[in-house]
Sequence to fold (432 residues):
Amino acid sequence: MRKENGFVILLIALCLGLATMAAVSSSPTNGDKESFEGFDSLDEATVTENWKRYFPAQYDGWMRTSEMQETTYGGGGKAEAEGMDVEKINYLEMYPFLKVNYDGFAFSKGYYRSRGHYYALTDIADTERLPDWDKRPATCIGCKTTDVSKLDAIHGDDWYSMPFSKVMGSNTIGCLDCHAPDDATVRHARTWLDEGLAHGTFANIEPEGRTDLVCAQCHTNYHFSADTRKVELAWTTGLTAEAQLEHYDAARRSDEWVHPRTGALVAKIQHPEYELYHEGQEVNVHSMLGLQCTDCHMPKATDADGEKYTEHHWTSPLTHVESTCMGCHSNWGTDGVVARAEGVQGRVYEKQNRIGRELAEFIDAVAAKRDNGGVDEVTLTRLQKIHREAQFYWDFIWVENSNGFHNWGEAHRVLDKAETLINEGMEVLDSV
Fold:
């Protein structure tokens, strides 16, 4: 954002954001003109198609998450032919350094670019990370299906420790995940989010009452409870990368493993979109203005009867800048908006890939010294600590699905910390 235009743009964005938030926060009322009366059972509410007669436009948007449009730095790819599934893009083939960085962990066996919500359950069922359904924890479906509400009602927290094979159903992410079954009001359905919020560690926003908490249910970093296998958010000490590393340092977490090449205890971060957007030592201007995830990813649209509704085709705002970005940045034009956004993404994309390769080179260099006895225990311990922290900071941005756009200042700051650590580690290796 240019400084000379900043103040005017900020005011426009604030007005747009507040107006949009007020609209999105209300219950959806358009549809086939039939008054929504709620569902008689959770069984009925878990099936998204049952909501269609009340909210056909929203249902159509949800269905279109199966047809994601590819963008320069993201998207789910394209179907090879009409009626075919969107292709799966294999990150391990695109970025070979991931096999080194994730060596010893399930992500080195299977790692694909995220597709639309329509495919959430399919993709977790087919993952190569944990192919044995009887050994895979049930928690793996926690963000993939409307059935979570039913499982919570029947089993409480006990279902998380069940085998995956015992809980796997056919309902992917849908209406019930974000809307109450009795009156369709926006609400989050995951109790682990309430537990995360109870820590009270947000620094930049007040999360309570925000519509986009429905996004925070799943678009956050997490691990599984050591006792119950339930999802836990790494928010006990804060939401920044440094605060979450402190959380991991307090106790060993389910997504930590001893890296076989260096012997370092490292952690696998899981897509902290909500944290990067709203929190950070560098404050994101869009969040600061009060804009929520829904303002850009769920813009207002008009149905066939001319009624306004909230779009439910969750995808990159760059595929519909006219209904989102242009409200504040019309002076840039649609091509200008896309070019500026992709410029921001491109710089983060280049840096995170470069540092990912540097991290892999560092890991292999430590492994070589370790294998031939060329490093003493004190120095090795220091190198392992550097590896742990550098990988944590790099992965925090690498797995965040906006390529830095959600908070580019914070993305660069965290990546710079990772690179500084890697350079320090290389200097230590050069000295032994």
Q: What stands out?
A: The beta strands are 222-224, 231-233, 256-258, 265-267, 300-302, 308-310. The chain has one domain: 3-430. The domain at 3-430 is CATH 1.10.1130.10 (Flavocytochrome C3; Chain A, domain 2).
